[in-house]
Amino acid sequence: MSDTAEQTQDAHGQADEEELEPVSEADRRVRRRQRRIAALRSADRALARLGVLGTLRDRLALLDAAPEVYDLDEDSDMYGNGVVEALEEKVAGLLGTEAAAFFPTGTMAQQVALRCWAGRTGSPAVALHGLSHPEMHERNAFSQVSGLRPVRVTSEPRLPTADEVRDLDEPFGTLMLELPLRDAGFVLPSWEELTELVAAAREREAVVHVDGARLWESTVHFDRPLAEIAGLADSVYVSFYKSLDGYGGAALAGPRTLIEEAKAWRHRYGGTLFQQFPTALAALIGLERELPRLPEYVVHARVVAEELRAGFEDAGVPWARVHPEVPHTHDFQVWLPYEVDVVSEAAIRQAEETRTVLFGNPWEARGPGLACTEVYVRAAALEWTRDDVRSAVADFVSRLAGPR
Question: E strands along 199-323, which residues?
Answer without folding.
Answer: 207-212, 235-239, 250-254, 321-323
